[in-house]
Design brief:
The protein is mainly alpha-helical and 133 residues long. It has 7 helices and no strands. It has one domain.
Length: 133
């Protein structure tokens, strides 16, 4: 029981420190124009790129011919432009200086807006029946 408490306490302390450091570094980051961030997000959400790879349209509708595929792509771009959500699996990894599938903190914060998250959870990627081919 004491070991669990120690592990949880250390984890909370490390995550708090990483969160504090990240906010200090976020304020210093070079801001991109909205147009440059949008172009980067559109590329990243395309099939074959990081966010487009695990989206339903990435394998089922890579050319975005279906209305559902276009809708999911637009949602991906919108989420990419928003600030990072507060509950985000990758966040502690990139904030601690690590990388996520080759993407570093500066890569992620180059597209995501600075500031408070508009949502707590990044969303769920589903495979609509109309995308199945």
């Amino acid at each position: 029981m004491k070991m669990r408490f120690l592990i949880v306490s250390v984890s909370v302390a490390v995550l708090s420190l990483a969160h504090t450091l990240a906010h200090g570094q976020t304020a210093k980051k070079k801001s991109w124009s909205v147009g440059a961030r949008t172009a980067a997000c559109k590329l990243d959400c395309s099939a074959g790129h990081l966010h487009g790879t695990y989206r339903a349209y990435g394998s089922s509708d890579p050319e975005l011919k279906s209305p559902e595929g276009r809708k999911l792509y637009a949602e991906c771009v919108r989420l990419c432009l928003d600030p990072l959500p507060t509950i985000y699996v990758q966040r502690p990894i990139i904030e601690a200086g690590g990388s996520w599938f080759g993407q570093t903190k500066s890569d992620c914060l180059g597209c995501h807006a600075a500031g408070q998250a508009k949502r707590n959870w990044p969303g769920v990627n589903t495979l609509p029946d109309n995308l199945k081919r």
